[in-house]
Amino acid sequence: MSGEGVEVPTPGVENLSVAEGNDDFVDPWNVQSSSTAGRFGSQKIDDELINRIEKVTGKPVHHLLRRGIFFSQRDMHQILNLYEQKKPFFLYTGRGPSSDSMHLGHLIPFIFTKWLQETFDVPLVIQLTDDEKFLWKDLAIEEANRLAYLNARDIIALGFDVNKTFIFSDMEYIGSCKEFYMNMCRVQKLVTFNQVKGIFGFGDSDCIGKISFPAIQAAPSFSSSFPLIFNGRKDVPCLIPCAIDQDPYFRMTRDVAPRMNMPKPALLHSTFFPALQGVQSKMSASDPNSSIFLTDTDKQIKNKVNKYAFSGGGATVEEHKEKGGNCDVDVSYQYLTFFLEDDERLAQIKKDYTSGELLTGYLKKELIEILQKIVTQHRENRLKVTDDIVKQFMTPRKLNFQY
Ligand code: TRP
């Protein structure tokens, strides 16, 4: 089984170039297509892989995997080989803390990561890139660091196990961990300015902080960056669940890993969570109406869904009954695929909406109830996350795993 895509010529060398005139250009800031599996050597998550995950874990896969929301991967078969052989690996994911309140879409990778951790029972490290947000946004450095703590609370509220999870802010951890910084330096030495220009589109007037930042996002892929957790081992492989826009960082990481004598990280990529206004429009933390925030009240949720969720239904009731609704563009339906766990119920809704029997209003009502429940539950869980609990998660320490 080859872990690489067909286009990669030399073992250990990732396809870092951005094809000319390529309308699937993917960098962390421009993603114009979700048909990117296959590009740059990543692979589609197909039925064969899903069946294999179910077989080796003895559990049905998470609906985000089953429904194609996580749709692309690198080296997931290798991770399953390790699991079958009872060899260790670990999970790494992260978040750029850019706003006070996270929205529902931000939860998706973490909900999925939690399932992975519970299913495979492995250590998890979560990087909060307060440095990244300071460099990219109009944010004071202290504010970026404060947001890291605030976002940690939302992440912890999803129910991660403190004995198996380490959450860190770059600003704090990097200064305290020599081995992490050593890995950053190793990566910095192996990647040229030309390469990061090609991968991330940096230009001459980007600050030098941005240009070297990719090394910081790469470093947690290596177990030696966490000497307390892995007891100094540098050979424990890593699996990274993330949204597809983060892939460029890890293409770069995979390219340098063999030259560092360290394993390449494996990846599971998700598509984007659509804005309420539709798949085409971009969700933005500065537009409160573009998504549902974890701080929204029941009333706000109801109003936003009713007013802004793009409908794939007919213009009039008559037209809708005649022609039916279009689930492919209907945002309420899309959101249900993310949050309604019951497969049968979802299939029934799809059937009845497509035939025109169900009206958009019904779909929205169903969605509103589900989202209100999720956000209420989240709010209650977050209230239970004390400063002391946040501190426990964010203290460098040994986890409940032996190496
Ligand atoms: N750059 C990511 C963001 O802006 C944060 C991040 C850091 C991340 N490390 C990661 C995301 C690993 C996924 C996986 O949100």
Automatic annotation (TrEMBL):
Q: Which Pfam families match?
A: tRNA-synt_1b (PF00579)
**Gene3D superfamilies, alphabetized:** HUPs, Tyrosyl-Transfer RNA Synthetase
Coiled-coil region(s): none
The protein's Enzyme Commission number = 6.1.1.2
List UniProt keywords, sorted A-Z: Aminoacyl-tRNA synthetase, ATP-binding, Ligase, Nucleotide-binding, Protein biosynthesis
The entry assigns this protein to a family as follows: Belongs to the class-I aminoacyl-tRNA synthetase family.
The record's annotation in PANTHER family points to: TRYPTOPHAN--TRNA LIGASE, CYTOPLASMIC, TRYPTOPHANYL-TRNA SYNTHETASE
Q: This protein is called what? A: tryptophan--tRNA ligase
Query: Source species, please?
Result: Mya arenaria
